[in-house]
Amino acid sequence: MRPRIALNIKSVEYEFLQEQEQLCSKSELLLQSNPVHKKVPVLVHNGKPICESNIIVEYIDECFPNLRAAVTAASEEEKNRAADQLKEVVVRMEGAHVEVSRGKDFFGGDRIGFVDIAFGSMLGWLRAVQVILGGVKLLDEEKTPGLVKWAEKFSADPAVKDVLPETGKLIEFSKLLIAAIRAAAAED
């Protein structure tokens, strides 16, 4: 339950697989992901398993900034803090891209794979947040050249280009989101 709550708070899309922890029949995925203790929960991210709920929550907190916090930041201090967190994550993603792509266009190699889809689904929001935070460069040619190229290739792919939301529409949606959050807070 803890990892699922953390993922939901961070607005991270994920696939939840319910494991039947019976004494004699554990799934092959569980046995491969947690061969020592053979217990749930296990988070598999970028092909690597992370075990034990508190460790998973800490990992989620470090790896996935709260995009909603960046969109709803009211003060300059909050905006700067959100921008710094997002920059750290994007730089980490650059490292992951370099490591797993092995010089290919996508995380999965020559073609778009699962990680590309998972990270790419946030690309529209990354672009919107750059504008919302006053022109902050999250995808930066100097610091994240691999991700800049990846984003261009991913966005131009025929399977993706008509699906990604327009930055302007996301910015308008964020304004509605902010208004709704502030209205709810005023009611409390």
Automatic annotation (TrEMBL):
One of its GO terms (cellular component) is cytoplasm. Pfam families: GST_C, GST_N. Residues 46-178 form the GST C-terminal domain. GO terms for biological process: glutathione metabolic process; toxin catabolic process. Its EC number is 2.5.1.18. It comes from the Eukaryota. The keyword Transferase applies. It catalyses: RX + glutathione = an S-substituted glutathione + a halide anion + H(+). Keywords: Detoxification, Transferase. One of its GO terms (molecular function) is glutathione transferase activity. Belongs to the GST superfamily. Tau family. This is glutathione transferase. It comes from Linum tenue.
